Amino acid sequence: QVQLVESGGGLVQAGGSLRLSCKASGSMRINAMGWYRQAPGKQRELVAVISSGGTTNYADSVKGRFTISRDNAKNTVYLQMNSLKPEDTADYYCNCNAKRLALGSPARDYWGQGTQVIVSS
Questions:
Q1: What's the chain's average pLDDT?
Q2: Which pLDDT band, with edges at 50, 70 and 90, does 68 fall under?
Q3: Exposed (0-12), middle (13-18) or buried (19+): which is 81, by Cβ within 10 Å?
């Protein structure tokens, strides 16, 4: 199965920065990749998404502070998070829409297991 492994989460002071990474394993053709987050007691929300062509979209709450990027050769997506706020505290989940070449099955969404980001005030 496709495996997505996130890294880079941790504890940071408000105003600080973190960079999340997500590596997708396996032979696949990846379409969009994105980051979602889920804060305690809240629904999971889209943070940022990047298409295979590099088009990006961001949640209003993170525009101007977060930057999503990808390295297609490495099947890796990044989320650079600057000017972090306490309200950014959440579990962050990597997502990709991909077609597994070995199976020849239709594209579907795959999820990482999450990495925790805690922003202290």
A1: 95
A2: very high
A3: buried
